[in-house]
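Tokenised fold entry reproduced for absentees:

. . .
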Amino acid sequence: MSTPQTTAEPAKASGDTSFFGHPKMLASLFSVEMWERFSFYGMQGILLYYMYFTAEQGGLSIDQGLAASLVGAYGGGVYLSTILGAWLADRLFGSEKVLFGSAIMIMGGHIALALIPGIPGLIAGLVLVGVGSGGLKANATALVGTLYGEKDERRDAGFSIFYMGINIGGLIGPLVTGWLQTSFGFHVGFGAAAVGMAIGLVIYALGRKRLPEEAHRVPNPLPAKDRTKYGLIFLGILVVIGLLLGTGLVNANNLARSMAYAAIGASVIYLVLIFRSPLVSGLERKRVVAFIPLYIASAAFWALFQQQFTFIAVYSQEKLDRNLFGWEMPAAWVQSINPVFIIIFAGVMAALWTKLGPKQPSSPLKFSAGLFIMGIAFLAFIPLAGEGKTPLLALVGILFLFTLAELFLSPIGLSVSTKLAPKAFHTQMVALFFLSVSLGTTLAGILAGLYNPDNELPYFLGIGGVAVVLAVGLAAATPAIKKLMGGVR
């Protein structure tokens, strides 16, 4: 059985410093992820407005609270679908093929949003983009992980550089689609997202043959005798989903809660499968145990951070003073503030981790710092509560805190999931991290529905306070977690 890394591969990777001190293939993965994020965040920057704006404004006139909940559920579904992309990569096709097919699906989804009007276009587009993005995210991250050995101190820095590419796309996307939406309508904005994905797909197609051989390997091939069994399992899952939707047991009003339950259930199943697998060693099982508190912290973090697309999107449209020298900035442009800070500071953080080397804080402490800062960001809304418009610079400052929190947790989460992963579950361990993002993103939609603009203080105090308490608890548990990590930092 082949695995994503052999003992020879880390040595090769350690000697390759052709891309700012990192392996050359990091540049290729940086590029495809940048354009995919351009299309994804460009679409998501105007999605909530498309759903709750009136028909006269070009929208679908969906209730605002319900629309926020659905956006959260959709975001959770994107990350939930990483388990499918990861399984297909680890058992059938390898990461590279799944990534390429997922990119094609994403482009098709953006085209559907651009060309098909009304609810049918919304459903078709979001399903294609959601499933495709899930397949691309887990496998792009896993391929970055194969470029570094387990003890390579450049790993966290490499993921921070990769993360900067994500945010270049995340910066440009909402700026383009937000301006197009206000100038020419929603469907033109969605069309720009399709064009961006097409560019990324072409760039990747031209360079995919130059990926290393391990990118094409199937780590844990599914035996031919088991393929019929798994085919029937997947068919059964589709039938159950169809029945739940067709009978109304799962509907628009409870979709977010259903998605949260699905994320929790999938995570539990994944952990049981990993723990019971004979391919997982005792040391690997301890490392998976160490990952569980990081999973919980990650879910709590994303429940706050992903409110950029729910609560903060509504806040930007209705309460933020967006007047710039007599011109009103599109509300979608607020989504580009965080990527600006990421682009500025991701390189700084990458350089810091590289310089500190073995002296840098452990991954659990980085997670704790990220969650703590995220809680402080929500507490910072408290002085702004009440009547009147919020100054743009005030929200910029809060989103700067979002950025600091993100840089402590998100790229580190991608990195630590590959470091703690059993060799037979390499990509699927990355998917488990994305399941924590799925759960948190879904919760972001649910929590946004609790926001009351007439009584803001309990919302900010409750959410921010809980995050700070969880962060302190994780910091206190860090010594025990480090023991379980078995030498991994």
